Amino acid sequence: MLLIGDPLGSEAARRLERVGCVDIQPGLTDAEFATIERRYGFEFASDHRAFLAEGLPVRTVGDDAREHAGWGWPDWRDGDPETLWQQLDHPVDVVLDAVRDGS
């Protein structure tokens, strides 16, 4: 069943692959989505799900800062769980730091 966001997510994945700036692996399966969403406590939006089902970007080509939470694409299939948690927490941490700093 296609949802409203699905065509946009699929097209985004195809465009990203054509640009060649990331390593693309086969897309996530329904079972993998279920595991990720259960483990990390969220649901992917329909367009993001379509994007990741089309192809899983795992690393920005030439990116040698792979271990840093704010860099590159999350490797939902084989990534280190601690690094994935850091990547999920990163936007919230940035906002909280800005509020604490009065920015």
UniProtKB/TrEMBL annotation:
Name under which the protein is recorded: Uncharacterized protein
